[in-house]
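Progress note, sequence design subtask.
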């Protein structure tokens, strides 16, 4: 029974032309994937910016807010009720990009390249 790896040829055993052709195919596929991700991100941002109606329990419209704001409000409400997943979402979204370490109940902000705490 063949496992499929017996006929593979390592890159260092291929000719330069074959290596270049394979690299070109990889570059083309990478560009396509980047464009697809960019387009998906743009459509997600547009959808999150759309206005939605916030209603009370009786169906009365309280306000028109963005979908992004509605998601944040719902996650905060769930976190306040004790949902730890929602609380983690709120912390992750609101956290800055700096690395934070908690030692003995104290929060230390570690700058990039300063991992000697």
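Output:
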């Amino acid at each position: 029974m063949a496992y499929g790896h017996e006929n593979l040829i390592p890159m260092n055993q291929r000719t330069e032309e074959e290596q270049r052709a394979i690299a070109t195919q990889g570059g083309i596929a990478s560009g396509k994937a980047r464009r697809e991700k960019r387009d998906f991100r743009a459509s997600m941002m547009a959808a999150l910016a759309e206005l939605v109606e916030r209603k009370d329990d009786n169906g009365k419209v309280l306000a028109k807010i963005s979908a992004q704001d509605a998601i944040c409000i719902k996650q905060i409400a769930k976190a306040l009720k004790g949902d730890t997943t929602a609380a983690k979402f709120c912390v992750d979204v609101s956290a800055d990009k700096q690395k934070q370490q908690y030692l003995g109940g104290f929060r230390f902000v570690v700058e990039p390249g300063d991992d000697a705490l």
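The chain has a mean pLDDT of 82. Work on this subtask will continue into the next period as scheduled.
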